[in-house]
Amino acid sequence: MHDPDCLFCKIVEGEIPSTKVYENEFVYAFEDISPMMPTHVLVVPKDHYDNIADNIPAEELGHLMQGAVDVARLRGLVGDGFRIVINTNDDACQTVHHVHVHVLGGEQMNDGNPHIA
Length: 117
Ligand code: AMP
Ligand code: ZN
What we know:
The protein has 2 helices and 5 strands, in the order H-E-E-E-H-E-E. The chain is of the alpha+beta class and 117 residues long.
């Protein structure tokens, strides 16, 4: 289930370079190219889904969310805290239409900070 025109499918396949943070059978995690926090990692399913509402099987959704928590733990963020963001379609300023979870942390946040758009 790969889309040949999709940026994040190409990253999963290694056709476009990325800085890998974590990988398992289901998900791939890599550094955001324009980080908004000390930790700003994107977690994506290896299969292509346009967004979180794209009829993702519950088991795959679970792996995606578990991957985000695994990345937060890997970065030592669980104690101090972290934020996950999933932008979906135009009103939320989704720019890459392969579902991805932003994992953000490493400094104090407040409401609206960071604004991921
Ligand atoms: P969104 O606005 O939620 O669709 O987020 C897309 C994210 O992908 C943004 O935070 C971008 O900085 C990030 N991004 C775009 N291209 C790349 C890339 N080649 N490698 C890593 N991150 C990227
Ligand atoms: Zn894709």
